[in-house]
Amino acid sequence: MNRDDVAWAGYWPAAPTPFDSDRAVDVDGLTALMELYVALRVGGVLVNGSTGEWFSQSPAERRRVAEVAIDAVDGRVPVIVGVTAYTADEAGDLARHAKDAGADGVLATPPPYVHPSGDEIVAFYRTLTAATDLPFMVYNWPRGVAVDMSEIDGLYQRLADLDRVVAIKDSTGDWLSMLSTVEAVSDRVRVFGSFLHRRGLATLLELGGDGNIDGGGVGAPFGVSFYQAVRDRDVAAAREWADRYQGLSGRLIRPDYSGIHGSPIAQLKAVMNILGQPGGTVRPPLLDLVDDQRIRSLQRIVEESGIRRATDERLAVAHAG
């Protein structure tokens, strides 16, 4: 397999997992969230990634989340299921379930906490990608894994050699390292990274790259429009959408993916609740963002960025069509 075996591109949300007031998985909320994403015309959806709080779910809950999301989307856009785990065997079990549930692909970081070497990372992915015949997305997430794969010479080329690897989600936090990833392997695998700004636009137009997988997807009206403009080679429109996206995201998330007003997932769900979207609560060890001053700051960002109006307009078009 290689990049040409999938059509993964554009703006994708990394879906949060809605939990209700009792901290149980909110199946109705998750179903509604998938419908929202489809209506916003995203390019695909990732579930049970970092934003999906896989780390606080049981294996049975992770399987249930995958099943609900896949059923709700019903083939209208690709669904990739995160299967990150401490061992390749455990991740492989989740990958096999994802295949049986109808997923379009699977994704995993290297095993968290372990801080593996380059050889150990290759061995891990070789075992995991052999668990199914699904296309596989490698996920570089130094913030959560404590190893940055982009810093290991030749590692991405070795991973691209694995038969099922068709994409890399490079969330390094180091933009120049992400740029090196594009240069090294984007002719062989899809590269999702940080492109939703003017520098990213220049990269997409001249060097390569395929999309953003964005925590929560609240910026979808801007991000989807940006990638449509990129596809149309409408540079002026793409710049405008990138600037509007940065007017929202740049006031919420730092370049290293930490949150400005709280921990990233708690902050995200607070914004979703302000927008009336099915984000729900977080689960321990995370804590919901309840500080009045911070909530007011988030409300200001939502209104000043124009994301509420843009979302409403896009949904009105979707429902009219």
Automatic annotation (TrEMBL):
Keywords noted in UniProt: Lyase
Gene3D superfamilies, alphabetized: Aldolase class I (3.20.20.70)
This protein's record includes keyword rRNA-binding: no
SUPFAM superfamilies reported in the protein's UniProt record: Aldolase
Record-given protein name: 4-hydroxy-tetrahydrodipicolinate synthase
InterPro entries with a match to the protein in the record: Aldolase_TIM (IPR013785), DapA-like (IPR002220)
Matches recorded under Pfam families: DHDPS
Source organism, top-level taxon: Bacteria
Family to which the UniProt record says this protein belongs: Belongs to the DapA family.
Record bears the keyword ATP-binding: no
